Each structure stands twice: as structure tokens, then as C-alpha cells.
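Objective 1.3, modelling of assemblies. Example input:
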Amino acid sequence: MRSIYSQVVNGAQALINTLVDGGVDVCFANPGTSEMHFVAALDTVPQMRGVLTLFEGIATGAADGYARIAGKPAAVLLHLGPGLGNGLANLHNARRARVPMVLVVGDHATYHKKYDAPLESDIDALAGSVSGWVHRTDDTADVAADAAEAIARTVASQRISTLILPADTSWTDGAHTDGVSVQQPKPVDVDTEAVESAAAVLRSGEPTVLLIGGGATRGSGLTAAVRIAEATGNRSYCETFPTRLERGAGVPAVERIPYFAEAVVAQLEGTKHLILAGAPSPVSFFAYPGKPSDLVPEGCSVHVLAGPNGAAAALAALADELAPGTTATVAIPSRPELPTGPLTAVSVADVVGALLPEHVIVVDESNTSSVPLTAATAGAPAHDWLTLTGGAIGYGIPAAVGAAVAAPDRPVLCLESDGSAMYTISGLWTQAREKLDVTTVIYNNSAYDILRIELQRVGAGATPGPKALDLLDLSRPTIDFVKIAEGLGVPARRVTAAEDFADALRSAFAEPGPHLIDAIVPSILG
Amino acid sequence: MRSIYSQVVNGAQALINTLVDGGVDVCFANPGTSEMHFVAALDTVPQMRGVLTLFEGIATGAADGYARIAGKPAAVLLHLGPGLGNGLANLHNARRARVPMVLVVGDHATYHKKYDAPLESDIDALAGSVSGWVHRTDDTADVAADAAEAIARTVASQRISTLILPADTSWTDGAHTDGVSVQQPKPVDVDTEAVESAAAVLRSGEPTVLLIGGGATRGSGLTAAVRIAEATGNRSYCETFPTRLERGAGVPAVERIPYFAEAVVAQLEGTKHLILAGAPSPVSFFAYPGKPSDLVPEGCSVHVLAGPNGAAAALAALADELAPGTTATVAIPSRPELPTGPLTAVSVADVVGALLPEHVIVVDESNTSSVPLTAATAGAPAHDWLTLTGGAIGYGIPAAVGAAVAAPDRPVLCLESDGSAMYTISGLWTQAREKLDVTTVIYNNSAYDILRIELQRVGAGATPGPKALDLLDLSRPTIDFVKIAEGLGVPARRVTAAEDFADALRSAFAEPGPHLIDAIVPSILG
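Predicted structure (C-alpha cells):
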């Protein structure tokens, strides 16, 4: 590792230098007093970009979105246990997305912890719940080596590395980066036995489904999955909530497994073999009285081809085994007609499909409104689709921040539900501050619509009472997202007709910087 | 316990009935699918009030504010690990405030957990970090008894009780409340030896400081503390961040220990004995290079009179021992003149002091702007002052929600910093929805001012660089709290002059329902 800083350095300076040398040059931050030396050290390392957020959940969600697009970790700087707590929901999503991330949690000075000062809490317990590796650096001399290990581990495992950094470790001089280097990850070997076994199943003539996920939902993985399906007559599907799905014109198309368990059951009916390539075995998102949790059909065997990290390579090997020399059919260009009339989830989807710019990154947290989007955008120019991998709402606006930081030359479209948007709405301010090219569309139906559906599906609300319905209602008062966005420095516009939405979306895509469109849509329950 | 519900009930219904029978009749909620049976059951128990929040940190902070004013626990309903994660920061504050609270965290159905569905996470680890008692109810038959134990434990210990409720425990029939009753807490006995020992110290003639906290910062505790000080010539102080401090005209006045360590050192200099009555021994909020963490002067002995729960009774016994038959001097009525000219933290304080209504509940998260408030309000009509007990910012707006729900006949004044307000700004929506009589004043100085001070104090920023300063700046773009408040249904007004602020504050107090005043003030750093 090239040492860019050879004079006497404190722990914070050594940490930032090690991060930058290890390729981690963006830090999403919401610091406090115990992180002030980290903040001060930013000026000594010009390569590190600090991005301020107004809430820790923005910082962690941004690091998730960043990693999905950049393909490498960002750092996140958080303030003690409460700061980590505020970031946990989006760390949960990032854990499920299997993205790399280096989390730096400032703590009280080592000698100060015993006094149980007001902000003292069990940081280790919280960090352990979302991290693949948690380490507390109590000696300044170890900072650089620990940071290098944090990077190496998160890159290799695609699980979050958390470094707990006491304030005195940070401020004490005597750190060094000499001889510290970030170990490069070994590529995941293709399991040739698993490939042979999967090939035999796919040749057996028994109905087989190939379920892809993890790193297989992009270029080479998708190509292999479609080649296999076309050569064997079997079906390939993508996991319900992929981390990053490449799709659109020119890209091999692999349909996603639906969200609702009963739809999955219908889709997989009759399947005798399920081959997992980077995806988990399908389970119901929630349990429902009298309905199955395990969605593998009765009598269906499950075979594991590969885990999330090695899935694309394993699929390529399998495709070469089953269909050497073939290519995959790709989606043909096609766009919906621009609709007219009152805005609905369907017309929103058609407008989006009609106007989606090339190479756009779509961050999708549209929840109940998302169903019509799939078909409406299938033939739009090639794009990436990021989804809510862990089910913890409030991921969209932050993930859009991170995606835009990772790809300043690409537009970002964030499709947001009203209820979810309110979890992390202050991310709009960071979009304004960083002049990020993000267009946020709020599906404003003034309800937790998904819960109104779930209230019926769990059998709790055959005849829901007024108190129950009131607790899922967002219309008293209605939320004015135009005012909120403007209050946070993002130009915004409310639309109720499809023509106006198309006009607003076109303008937002044409003008650099963030925009918000408050799209008033009816509840899908009518 | 009176059973108000004798037919066949499911777990959710038994839970809500037990809560209501145990005096817990408000539930701050942000539910999800796994909590839908709890939501549906609300209509079967009219006594339970469900209060919807748009983010879990609002629900937990509201339960804290509620408990501080109602003197009894509220329930909080959260959705799995991520919902609990979002609530953790304000649970941390509530833990430090030592308030009772019954936290109900919905979980996946017992049989569903093994499938590692997307929202699966380690709820127990998170709950353990903030709770005095954590229990998972896997059998519907146990719900009522477990809920009764949750209430009894939190009331007795003033620590949070967390009940993890799997969805099937909630939806299954077969629960009953027969024979279930909530055990009443035993009063904390006064430790007569500790009283004798403290009396001897206070009579010794050596400089002694009595430090009160916990339950001693109200009526009887304050009266006793002042009686003791007046009879012995020693000083009584209140902990830096009391849970609920009664003060104002007619109330015995006990000065708070300051925030900054160097000021505490100056205040306690020469003290030979420190007697703790419900307060912890004074420690620095953060560690600073070369400065002490333990703020007890060298050579000073520390004596514990009582813990937080029994402090008021112990103080009363001590006062009767040292000064039988005496009464305490109380603060005399006095108000500042209404100031004129540009708004500053000082003139804001004077306007607040001049206009504070009787019996107002002040929720103080004004941080760096708070210093002039103490003197300016010392002679205002009697009021309660709630403070940020755990240092996790974002407590003010939610705590104001809870305080207003607990005391619908009292006005609530929430003094908020701009940076802190943005953590939980959506609490304004709940204030609008519930028509709560809360006036929120935003000290809008467009900076994390406390961190600009701390950057200097930790020795990190003798000459802070532009990147460091930029990371503490909230002016790019400036945040327009008027627009944000209006977007959330709360009428709002921006003021830059003291006269306008007085006018806005008078109007807000005069008109029922929530209001926000965006008070533009300069940074205290100039």
C-alpha cells in the first residue's frame, strides 16, 4: 500500500488515509463530538469526500445505494449507540442486499466509558445485529491495520464491517500506515460438482425453475440464465427483491418472483426442481394464518448452484455446459403510449415507461404502486433497478443519494411511497446540498395502502373497525410533499393528471439537480 | 383485576385488555403487517387510544414525554427489528430518564422465524440494549400474564419493559385475562442509615453539595433540598439533565449543574462532600484531551443518600432531621421586559420568559441556545421543564407529542434546535392529526453549532479546515421550517425580530392546536 501520509498522524488521519488507499473515498456522515477528530482530519486527506446527512438513516441508506452502483464500499461515520440506532433500519436493508460497507462508529474515549456518561450504551450489541465483522480499536497504533482489515473483509464477504473507534484512539498521535495493505479478495471458485448436478437436473425433462439472485442479476448472470432457460425449455426467475437488476432494451429479461405468497405458489406450481443461483429459497415475506411460509412446492427438490457472490460465474459455467456457443434473447425496445386523464398507479407507470432516460438508475420503493411498473418499463432503454431488499421502509430517498454520488453522470429516478418517504425525507436536503441529479416521484395516496391490504390478508380485518382503519390513514392532515421538498431546498410540483405528470417528469429529467414530483394517486383499494 | 372481556379472545385482544386494566391506555404506534391483529383489536377495547406516528422514533419519544407528565407508562407498538431500530435513540433517552414504558415489538410468527424472511433480525439484542426486562411470548395463553408482568416491572423499576410478540401469538384464539392482575410496586424504603450519615456530613461544617435528580426534582424533593440548604448553609444542585424539573414562581429553586465540564469544575471547587439524592455522580458528558472525566473535586467524598426512585422521600426525611418544621424559600414572580430588535438566543429567552403561560410544559432541546433561558424563565409562572436526558438528539418534537397527550389541558412549548428538529420532524404531523396544543419554536441558526464549539473544545479544530466546517454547516440550502411545518399540517411563521417573535408566540399560545415558529437567530459563535 502506497503511504500518502508519512508524518506523525493521529488515529483519525490514519483511518481516513487507509480508507482512501483502500479505495473507500466517500464518507456519508452525521458526526457528533466523539467524531470531531475524524471531521478535522478530512482536511488532511483531499481524496476523501465527506457527504453530510441530517439523519443517520440517510447516511446508511446512501452507503447502500452507493455500493450497489459503485460496486465498492463507502464509509459511514456515526455518533455512538444512538447514531448507530438511527442508522440500523437501512443497515438491515444493506445486510440483506449483501453490499460492502465500512461503518465507523465513534465511541467515548476508552477511559471515559466506565463513567456511564449519558450517551453510553451497548454499541457492540447493535453493531453485531447487522455486521459481518465488528471490531473495537482501543490502540491508535492499530487503526490503520484494523481499517485495512475492515475493507478487506467487507469486500470479500459483502457483509458490513463495523469499526468502533473510541475518541482517544482517534485523537492520539502515533498512528502509522506503514506496511498496511488491504488484502484483495479471492474470487469465489465455481463448484463444478454443483454445476454438473444442476446440468443433470435441467436435462432431466422434469419441470425445473432456476432462481437467480445476488451478483447474478446483471449482465453475465442474466445472459447465462436466459441461455439456460432457452436451451432447456425451463424457466428462470429472479429473486423478489434484487439488489441491482439490469433490465430494459438489449438486456436479457428475467422475471421477478412476486411479493405475495399466493402468487408465488401459483407461479411455482408443478415445479419438480428448484436451482438456486445466488437467491435464497422462496419464503413468504410474512406469515399468514393458514398459509404456507415455505413456498417451495410439495415434492420439489431444492439444489444450490451457488451463493450470492459466486452466482454469475457458476451460471456462466452452467450455460456453457448446457448451451455452448449460444447467446441470449434480449428485451426489444418498446415504450407505452403516453397516457392521458387522471393519474393512477397504472398511468404513472406508463409515463415512467414512456420517458425513462437511457442508463437511468431506478430506486424503487413504490410498494403497492409498483405492480404496473414492471411491464411498462420492460422495453425502455437499458437501466438499473434497485429494490427494497430488507423490507425496512425509508430506503428510497437515501439510496438515491448514494446512487447519484456513485454515478454523477447518470440520472436517478426514485419512485417513493408517501408513507415510506416520510421515514427519511430529510435526504432531500442532502440531494440539494450535493446538487444530485435525482428525480423523486411520490406516489401520494394518503394511506399505508400495503397495510390496508395486509389487514385483510392476515384475516384480521374482514370487517375492520374505524380505529383500525384510522391507524393506517395518512389523510388527516394530507401531507404536502411540494412544501416539504421546497423547505428542504428541492424544487417540486404537484400533479393530478397524466399529462401534467409527463410534463413534470420531462422537465425534471431535462434539468440537472434534484426535483420532486408529488403525484396524487388513488388508493389501489379504491 | 377486573376482566372487561370474557368471551374467547386472541392474543392481541388479551394484550390490549391487560394493558388497559393495568392503567396503560395510550399506545403510540407505527405498525406493520405483523402487528395487524393488534391494530384490529383496538376496536374491541374502546378505552385504548391509538396514536399514529409516521416514524418509530416519534412513537418512542412520545411515550417518554407521556410518562414524564402522566407519571405512568404508555405502550408503544413497533414493527420487528427495523421498527425497533428506528425507535432506539429515543428509547435511549427514555432509559436515561428512568421513565416507565411498555414496548410491544411485533415479530414474525414463531414457526416463520426459521425461514430467515427479509425482515428477520435480532430483535432481542436491540431490545436488551435499552430495556430493564425483555420477554418473548410464544404462547397465546401467556399473553395477559406477560403483559401484566411487563407493566408491574416497568412501574417498579422505571426501566423499559419490552414484550416481543410473534404474529401467531397475537392472532391465535385461546388467550384469557382471568386471574391476571398487575402487581403494585412496593414503595422504596428510606435508608435511615444513609439519612443519618448525610445529616452528619451536612452538620460537619465542611463544604457540602447536595445533588438531586430522579424523582426529587419536583415539589417535595425540591422543597426538602432547599430546606436542607437553607438550614445548613450548604448548596443544593439539580442534575444537568433532569427528567422533569418543576420550577418558576412559587416553586423552590434548585440550580442545575452546567453542561460543560470546566463550568462544573468551577462550580464544585472546594467541595469536600457530595451527597447524591437520585442523581449520578457528576461526569463529563464527553471526554476531552487532557481534561478530567470525573468531575468530583479531588479530596471530595461522595455519599449516596438515595437512588432515583426513592430520592424525594429520603430528602424529606433528611430535611425533617436537619430542619424540622421549616419551609423552603420559593422563587418570586418576575418576568423579563419584552425585548426589541433583531432576534438572538438572548432575546428569544426574554420573550419566552415574558410570555410563558401558567402550567406550561416546556420541552427543551434548544442545546447551544438554551443558556439564557434559565434566568429568563426563573420567575415565570410555575411550569415543568423536560430535558434531553440521554443526549440522543431528535427527542423534542416527539416528547412534546407525548406530553400534550398526557396533559390535554396544559399548553406545551417545545424549544428546538434546527439540527435536532430534522431528526424527527414528522412528529409535527401527529401534532396536527391529534390537534395537540404544542407550540414549537425552532432556533434556526443554520448550523450544528454545538459541534462547532466541540470541534474547538476537543482540540481538533484550532484552525479547522473548510471540509470540517462544511460538515457542520446547515446553510446549503437553508432549511425553511415554515414550509416543512405547513407541509405537515401545522401553521407556521418565520420571525427575525423580537417584536415579531413575541407576537407569534402570543398568537400560538392563544389559539388551540399546534403551531411552529421558525426563529432565525445568529450562531452563538457569531
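Chain B touches chain A through 100 residues (CB under 8 Å).
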